[in-house]
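== Folding the chain ==

***
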Amino acid sequence: MSGIVVAQRRRARPSRKLEPLLPAAAVAAVLAVWQWSGLFLNPILISTPAAIAGDLVQLVTRGVIFDPLAESLEELVIGGSIGIAAGIGLGLLMGRYELVDKVLSPFVNFLNATPLVVIIPLVIIWVGISQNARLLFIFLITLWPVLLNTVAGMRNVNRGYVDVGAAFGLSETDMLRKITLPAAVPYILAGVRVSAGLAIIGMIVSEMEVSLTGLGYLLITYGNSFLTGRLLAVVFISSMFGVANVMLVKWVQATFFPWIAGAAAEQR
């Protein structure tokens, strides 16, 4: 019996070695089919990967992309960072203090349920069509996911840990720093990942709706001109923002909170 088990494990090893290649193979297959479909489809409707790559190289070599990219990146970092920081701060207060939660919950639930795109005209009235209006919209769309996740994390702390901390006479600050906050970190990071993705959406929408600038301006311009290859090249660059955000959150988790991955592995 043991020999059969060993033989099965040996046969399973090659497949495990090939597992990292599966995502690359899937992407290559999709790109190949997409490129082949270009023989039959109108290039105005959908451009091919080769054509998109060529347009992307032209945008870079001609320097067309750099100024809009820098402007969009600046707004993404400033508006998203402020929204995430404010969401974590308010979430900690609402999760820790019941009075704060009762006071703020009606407003949080109402604003979270409101499609924030509908308040763009109001944002323009308040702030104008300057960069401040775009930053405000990014802030508002980024705030709620991380706030709600932080509250959920604070409320789902293991009660046994809290009782142990109370038994050892931990102060309110020590209880938050040593027990409550570490237990809520996985929830907070999940909220940060969602908010970071929404920050990109807020950046593009505000640049298209508040004032034409940045990557949003390029999207509108190339879309109205039916330059599908360049349009998809800008879409690709915008998607890379999302990939970078995910990688950044994973790096923060692996660097500062390595115990989260270990706990998840034990549960599996």
The chain has one domain: 64-261. The chain has twelve helices and no strands. The CA atoms of residues 45 and 228 lie 7 Å apart. The mean pLDDT is 85.
